[in-house]
Design a protein that fits this description.
The complex is a heterodimer of chains A (536) and B (446).
Chain A lengths: L2 H8 L1 H4 L1 H24 L3 H5 L5 H8 L14 H5 L4 H21 L7 H4 L2 H7 L2 H7 L10 H12 L49 E4 L6 E7 L2 E5 L16 E5 L2 E4 L5 H11 L8 H9 L30 H15 L2 E3 L3 H9 L12 H4 L4 H6 L3 H4 L34 E7 L14 E2 L10 E4 L15 E3 L25 E2 L3 E3 L30
Parallel strand pairs in A: 4-8, 7-11
Antiparallel strand pairs in A: 1-2, 2-5, 3-4, 5-12, 6-12, 7-9, 9-10
Chain B lengths: L1 H41 L16 E6 L3 H11 L5 E8 L2 H12 L10 E3 L3 H6 L5 E4 L6 H10 L3 E4 L7 H16 L4 E2 L8 H11 L6 E10 L13 H7 L5 H4 L2 H4 L2 H11 L5 E7 L11 E7 L5 E8 L6 E8 L2 E3 L4 E4 L4 E4 L18 H15 L6 H20 L3 E2 H6 L27
Parallel strand pairs in B: 1-2, 1-4, 2-3, 4-5, 5-6, 7-10
Antiparallel strand pairs in B: 7-11, 8-9, 8-15, 9-10, 11-12, 12-13, 13-14
Helix pairs in contact in B: 5-6, 6-13, 11-13
The chains are: A alpha+beta (536), B alpha/beta (446).
């Protein structure tokens, strides 16, 4: 049909009254239909209709948002879509298409719901505006003193802190989310309580005992040696701070076979805990000077094991300061010299004599989720899973020691699982400060710095970040962002869930001074708190 | 034809309107800019002030802290308007309560025994006795707890400054203030310069730009030695400290907080912001009792680099000065009754009421101590709440920053002070021994 005639035909409804009415009626009917379609695909029943996550419906019905106390029911889309307007339709379309694709083309029984419930994921399908649409008054009359402090903190951090940083489980009840009263108590009912630490007469691997508990852990003897620290220019995904490569000589030492576990860390907490003690900066400085009066951690906020369980899982979320105090305490109770590893010791131990990117065969290109190929076809899991807990193999949580095979020195989880504190201050140019050529012996890192080195990557890391040479640093302020306590805790990070540590023991007779200027510990710790003072 | 005609007239209308608007904007622009500064200098003063609160349903008030200021506040409240009563008293000492009771009885306010409460928990009983308003005039250490209880019970509040002595207390007051805000509670906080007619007139003129942008502030409270009570036979530690509260840091916050907060608050008010950090000196030269300093000198710095120079002293035989001063790009002012150009010529002076012989009295028509109660009762009765609690908490925190900076010699930032867990004083209150020594802080280290 010629264009002009077509145009005339199409504009008929606008020109002639009777067609205008019919057209208008059709439009109105279409709008009503669209509105109905929108409403019916936003109902709670519709959300549950794929039967993909029945546990979400169940946990919602146990939560405060299902009228458990007030009788007011908050429906799925009131949290899981923005309050209204263009954003509502856009997000609904986006999520709807993803959900449709997922339920039709993927195996929904393989979805790791626990990983999807983590804070990082929850931020992608909840909306701050949806919280504040209803919760407009952050200072209701019945707000508790803790709530007062937390909401004052939130209001000072306007825009930086989402509500769900603290209120993650308000929509879906999780009984593991609250800190159990028994934090720090170890069940010792059926096991032998050690009265003495293990002896260490010769330089050999041994099993240490923590006196007064039934906790033991293995220390592996690492012989001294030389290695090339850093990564060569041609290593895939190498970063600039891993060079220049230098030859480093490391004296012998013993290292924890695996990371410090919750059992071990809770023993420390139980023996030194300072309930209700003040967290002032002066206190932190005191602890470093007066090691014969070791005062330990204040109670954690929330459940530090993230609901994954304790026991032989690595202890996590403690600060670098807390890890160093743990070592001081452990030294005092066992009469040995425990400390954090230096970065050189850590990389030497991780490599176990291997020069490649990992101590096991394979290239970062095979294991990373960054390449398009791996994004589509998946990572080569079989080659990495036996050795390392990383994001593609972890299910979004830490794992106990026996999940992986040991490296050539007999150590577990050097690669992955949790990121491990080192004693060194981090500097991107640390390697460049020593000239290449001859070997340096036992480097300790820079004299000062702002953040400490952490190594090894974690369950949340891509394979690139768990290469033996990969370097990382703490982010002290960012990891304390959510902390509502005043001042911020010096013992626990509120915003870092994948950091922990492993320990090194110096064989007595080695004249190595622990880095950081901490005095050599001696005497027995006293469990009680700091000196009382008119601290103005 | 019809359509064309209509279109034409639409264009004319729009064009005409635009033309007129344009003309107005061009003409009005120049004069509008020149107007505010000149106009405000000759505008009537005291426009918003009432001499007396309006009438309304009877308001009953209870007094917590029946000392000199509490009794004074009770009288100011009664004078604020019609249908106001004091119906309950609370104090930790029976003798202080009794003397307040007698003063009130002399002006017709009889308070029965059943509503006179003695003890640390007297405040709870006053709140529960059926009052609408609570007047809080105890040593400031107790203010946060008392204010929180008033807000929980939905009582309007007059509370004396300072509102706390430590950061923990400050945060409690801010939370209580926000809770009260949402339910329309009124809280007036004894920073009476904000209700003083000459100060308010000066503020309005400076806010309108008569001296340009403010570039610096100065505030002073230098006076003679303040009162003290030496310990008597038979007094426990707690009784001795309470009766001498203005000399004990855990009770008063030290004199920079207890007294000088008035002047610091004025500069915060005029500048419209709070300092970001403080460096200070302080010392104890002659104070006879307690554990406080008797002089402070603080350099407060704002985040934009401006300075507030603050000085306070309570020593006899020295040059005295209680005042504030701000300097702007086009002039300066004593924040109270004079505005000058930079060359010293006067721009404005407050017009004080005249006495019988026609001479200016130098006093505002209504004393600010009475005005603050008039404003409180007016707010309650007209349903237009005023809530000064958070503002005064912030000014009190600034004073606390100055105190800590002087005690330690270190720089103290607003952020550190606002998030500090410092809490002064014992954790339980009873007449008996108190485990606080009179340790005078010494800054720095050898």
């Amino acid at each position: 049909m010629p264009a002009k005639r077509l145009l005339r035909l199409l504009s008929l409804p606008f020109r002639l009254l009777r067609y205008r009415l019919v057209f208008g009626a059709l439009v109105a009917f279409g709008l009503v239909l669209a509105h109905h379609a929108d409403k019916s695909t936003s109902s709670d029943d519709f959300c549950a209709s794929c039967h993909v996550h029945p546990q979400a419906s169940a946990s919602w019905k146990l939560s405060t948002h299902y009228g458990v106390e007030s009788g007011v029911v908050v429906h799925c889309v009131e949290c899981h879509l923005p309050p209204g307007g263009l954003a509502y339709y856009w997000e609904k379309a986006r999520h709807g298409l993803r959900d449709a694709y997922g339920s039709l083309f993927t195996d929904t029984s393989q979805i790791d719901w626990e990983a999807r419930s983590s804070l990082e994921h929850a931020l992608t399908y909840t909306y701050e505006e949806s919280c504040t649409r209803c919760h407009q008054n952050l200072f209701p009359l019945n707000l508790s003193p803790k709530g007062d402090e937390a909401h004052l903190h939130y209001s000072r951090k306007a825009g930086e802190l989402p509500c769900i940083n603290c209120h993650l489980h308000s929509g879906h009840y999780d009984e593991r989310a609250t800190q159990p009263e028994s934090f720090g108590e170890l069940s010792t009912a059926t096991r032998e309580i050690f009265t003495e630490p293990a002896p260490l007469a010769r330089f050999e691997s041994f099993v240490e005992h923590i006196p007064g508990t039934s906790v033991s852990f293995e220390m592996i003897a690492i012989p001294g040696g030389e290695f090339l620290m850093g990564s060569p220019q041609h290593e895939a995904y190498r970063r600039a701070d891993e060079g220049p490569v230098r030859r480093v000589r490391v004296s012998r030492f013993l290292m924890g076979k695996s990371e410090v576990t919750w059992d071990e860390y809770q023993a420390f907490y139980a023996q030194t805990a300072a309930k209700g003690q003040r967290n002032t900066r002066a206190l932190a400085e005191d602890t470093r000077r007066k090691v014969d009066a070791i005062s330990g951690a204040t109670p954690p906020y929330g459940n530090p094991d993230q609901g994954w369980g304790k026991g032989s899982r690595p202890a996590i979320t403690m600060t670098h300061h807390a890890a160093t105090v743990y070592c001081q305490w452990l030294s005092a109770v066992t009469g040995k010299s425990y400390r954090l590893p230096t970065e050189a010791e850590w990389e030497y131990a991780c490599r176990g004599g291997t020069p490649g990117p990992y101590f096991f065969p394979g290239s970062p290109r095979d294991f990373t989720s960054e390449t398009l190929w791996n994004k589509i076809f998946g990572v080569d899991l079989d080659a990495i899973a036996p050795y390392a807990v990383v994001d593609s193999t972890s299910g979004g949580k830490t794992h106990p020691p026996d999940k992986v095979k040991a490296n050539p020195f007999g150590l577990l989880h050097m690669t992955g699982n949790v990121r491990e504190f080192c004693s060194d201050w981090y500097s991107a140019e640390a390697y460049a400060t020593h000239p290449g050529g001859h070997a340096i012996t036992d480097p300790r890192g820079p004299e000062s710095g702002k953040e400490h080195v952490i190594r090894g990557g974690s369950y949340a890391s891509d394979a690139i970040a768990v290469r033996s040479a990969a370097r990382d640093a703490t982010r002290h302020s960012a990891w304390l962002m959510t902390d509502p306590q005043n001042p911020k805790s010096i013992w626990w990070y509120s915003d870092c869930r994948d950091v922990g540590f492993r320990i090194v023991c110096e064989f007595h007779g080695d004249l190595v001074q622990p880095p950081g200027g901490a005095a050599r510990p001696g005497g027995s710790p006293s469990p009680s708190g700091s000196p009382e003072g008119a601290n103005r | 034809m019809k359509e064309q005609e209509r279109a034409l007239s639409r264009r004319q209308f729009v064009g005409g309107a635009a033309g007129t608007l344009g003309a107005m904007m061009l003409a009005g622009g120049k004069t509008a800019r020149a107007e505010p500064a000149a106009a405000i200098l000759t505008a009537p003063q005291d426009a918003a002030f009432l001499d007396r609160a309006p009438d309304g349903p009877p308001l009953k008030a209870g007094v917590v802290g029946c000392g000199g200021r509490g009794t004074g506040a009770a009288e100011d409240f009664l004078d604020a308007g019609p249908n106001l009563q004091i119906t309950a008293l609370g104090d930790v000492f029976a003798d202080r309560l009794q003397s307040c009771r007698e003063t009130l009885a002399a002006r017709g306010q009889e308070i029965p025994d059943s509503r006179c409460f003695v003890g640390f928990d007297a405040y709870q009983k006053v709140i529960a006795s059926g009052v609408n308003v609570v007047l809080l005039a105890t040593p400031p250490h107790f203010r946060p707890e008392h204010f929180a209880a008033c807000v929980a019970a939905r009582k309007h509040v007059f509370m004396e400054k300072p509102v706390a002595v430590d950061p923990v207390g400050i945060r409690s007051v801010i939370s209580s203030a926000r809770k009260g805000q949402t339910i329309g509670l009124c809280a007036v906080t004894g920073t009476q310069r904000r209700h003083q007619r000459d100060y308010v007139a000066a503020y309005q003129r400076i806010k309108a730009g008569t001296i340009g942008e403010l570039v610096a502030g100065y505030c002073y409270w230098n006076q003679d030695q303040l009162w003290f009570r030496t310990r008597e036979e038979g007094w426990s530690d707690m009784e001795a400290m309470l009766r001498d509260w203005v000399n004990w840091c855990w009770l008063s916050g030290d004199h920079i907080v207890e007294q000088h907060v008035h002047n610091i608050d004025v500069i915060n008010w005029f500048l419209g912001k709070y300092p970001a950090r403080a460096v200070a000196c302080g010392a104890r030269h002659r104070r006879p009792t307690g554990d406080q300093y008797d002089m402070f000198s603080v350099d407060f710095v704002y985040d934009d680099g401006r300075h507030l120079s603050s000085m306070c002293r309570q020593i006899s035989g020295c040059e005295n000065n209680v005042s504030e001063f701000v300097v702007g790009t086009k002039g300066a002012s004593n924040c109270r009754n004079k505005i000058y150009k930079l060359d010293g010529t006067a721009l404005w002076e407050y017009d004080y009421p005249k006495d019988a012989s026609g001479q200016p009295t130098g006093q505002v028509a209504i004393s600010p101590y009475k005005q603050e109660h008039i404003d409180l009762v007016t707010a309650i009765r007209t349903g237009k709440p005023i809530n000064e609690a958070e503002t005064t908490a912030n000014s009190t925190l600034v004073a606390i920053m100055g105190r800590i900076a002087a005690y330690t010699g270190r720089q103290v930032t607003w952020e550190e002070a606002m998030t500090s867990d410092l809490r002064l004083g014992p954790t339980t209150y009873e007449m008996g021994p108190v485990n606080i020594e009179a340790e005078i802080p010494v800054p720095g280290q050898a």
